[in-house]
Amino acid sequence: MKTISLSDRLFATITLFGQTLANISVQGVTSMKEIMARLVETIGTELPRMSRLTLRNASQGWMFTSTITGAPQASMRVNCAVASSAVSEAEATQLTLTF
């Protein structure tokens, strides 16, 4: 199980048939939906079917790769859980990716 902390530096790339459509760096996100929304904003349209998402967490040293299939709206759904505690939000918020 991979986690994303609010302070992690992330690099997200969308490719389609080997061509890079978007390559962004994000920090301060709390959900996969936010990352996907930033990618859609960068591309200027919905994420194409059969495109590949690569998410690299430079702070923790892991990488996640997935192919986007199905309807574009369905590609925004990711199984995740947000964990928090009574500590400050910056220290406690995490995104957990299950795959």
In round numbers, the mean pLDDT is 77
Our estimate of the beta-strand percent is 35-45%
Poorly predicted spans: 72-93
- Structural class of the secondary structure composition? alpha+beta
* Secondary structure tally: strands: 7
Please state the overall shape, judged from the principal axes of the Cα atoms: globular
Structurally, how many domains make up the residues?
Answer: 1
Taking the alpha carbons of the first and last residues, their distance comes to 7 Å
What is the number of helices? Answer: 2
* Main sheet characteristics: 4 strands, antiparallel
H/E element sequence: EEEHEEEHE
Helix content: 10-25%
Radius of gyration: 13 Å
Strand order of the largest sheet: 3-2-4-5
Describe the structure in your own words.
This protein is of the alpha+beta class and 99 residues long. It has one domain (2-97). Helices cover 16% and strands 41% of the residues. The chain has helices at residues 32-43, 89-92, and strands spanning 2-5, 9-16, 19-27, 52-57, 62-67, 80-83, 94-97. It has a 4-stranded antiparallel sheet with strand order 3-2-4-5. Strands 1-7-6 form a 3-stranded antiparallel sheet. The longest helix is centred in the middle third of the chain and has 12 residues, at 32-43.
